[in-house]
Design brief:
Rossmann fold; globular; 2 domains; Four Helix Bundle (Hemerythrin (Met), subunit A)
């Protein structure tokens, strides 16, 4: 299994996804500031992986605090959480993970544990969240595999695989589970401009797993749908609103509209932690704007004229009317999503 990130006594080890597929490098991030940098600069990406990385960053930061007393420790702990929370605005798993660590800290503090004991427990929690994410992805894969027909060709956009999680994957986890169940499945992967997660990461993952993959540019998806080459679409998500609107990598909305036009099922695979019942609709989801150079340059080579205006939103929102079903570790939600998602979150 691909090791996206891992806790070690020396620090948090992450595969540098910016260098894939040509280089497989695993740097160690030894401070919470370095972990925050890794999240912000896309060394690690994908909502579930960002959440686990943030939890490890909180634990690492807490372990490294030098404080005279509990009050000073708490002040520094809150700063660590604020810095990590300021890295990426769209992926709700980031805030979910930090809040989970803060809640544990408050609980342990109220129980009278020493600062040293609190740090040990925070590390244990971060490691548990890592293991938990892999289990969640496998359960999600089992639930979603039933929706993938034997012999299907699946389109996916961006990377929602092991690299986007602690392991196994969300959208690619569904595909992996279908293959493990004995189904013959092939994948078309959108390249996913401008950061090329599909070309660099999804194609790399699937090729390593010997799952047949065909790489296409983003503007080819409609052609292959119309030609009858694709049977369904499976994507991940960075935040799902209470009404089932889905924020995912830029270009997902276009794929969903094309799928609807061509009567192709459009599935979203995401853990319960990605569902944000406090966000009523997709209109309320903040959309991150990424650096202009991601559009103007590829691997340091400039592609566009100097001085032109650049827009680079990292995500778009797909309205719920285009979503056939949302696959989670607790089951599959269908419209009306306001009811079905709430039931899944509440564990019904």
């Amino acid at each position: 299994m691909i090791k996206t990130l891992e806790w070690t006594d020396e620090g948090v080890v992450m595969i540098d996804q910016r260098l894939l597929p040509t280089e497989e490098v695993y740097p160690i991030f030894k401070t919470y500031e370095e972990v925050a940098y890794a999240i912000k600069e896309m060394v690690v990406r994908g909502a579930p992986a960002i959440g686990v990385a943030a939890a490890m960053g909180v634990a690492l930061g807490a372990r490294n605090i030098t404080a005279k007393d509990a009050a000073q420790f708490e002040q520094q702990f809150q700063l660590i959480c604020e810095v990590l929370a300021g890295t990426r605005p769209t992926a709700v798993n980031l805030f979910w993970a930090i809040e989970r660590m803060k809640t544990l800290y408050e609980k342990l503090k109220s129980e009278g544990l020493s600062l040293a004991e609190i740090c040990v427990r925070l590390i244990e929690e971060a490691k548990h969240m890592h293991e938990e994410d892999v289990s969640i992805n496998k359960a999600m894969g089992t639930n979603g595999a039933t929706l993938i027909p034997d012999g299907a060709t699946v389109l996916t956009h961006c990377n929602a695989g092991a690299l986007a999680t602690a392991g196994y994957g969300t959208a690619l986890g569904v595909i992996r589970a279908a293959v493990e169940a004995g189904k013959k499945v092939a994948v078309y992967a959108d390249e996913t401009r401008p950061f090329l997660q599909g070309a660099r990461l999804t194609a790399w993952e699937l090729h390593k797993d010997n799952i047949p993959v065909t790489l296409i540019t983003d503007n080819m998806a409609g052609h292959f749908m119309k030609a009858g080459k694709l049977d369904c679409v499976v994507v991940g998500a960075d935040r799902i609103a209470a009404n089932g609107d889905v924020a995912n990598k830029i270009g997902t909305y276009s794929v969903a509209v094309l799928a609807k036009e061509n009567n192709i099922p459009f599935y979203v695979a995401a853990p319960i932690s990605t569902i944000d019942l406090n966000t009523k609709t997709g209109d309320d989801i903040p959309i991150e704007e990424r650096p202009q150079t991601e559009v103007t340059h590829v691997k340091g080579t400039q592609l566009s004229p100097e001085g032109i205006t650049i827009a680079n939103p990292a995500f778009d929102v797909t309205p719920n009317r285009y979503v056939t079903a949302i696959i989670t570790e607790r089951g599959v939600a269908r419209a009306p999503y306001t009811e079905s998602l709430q039931a899944l979150v509440q564990g019904a």
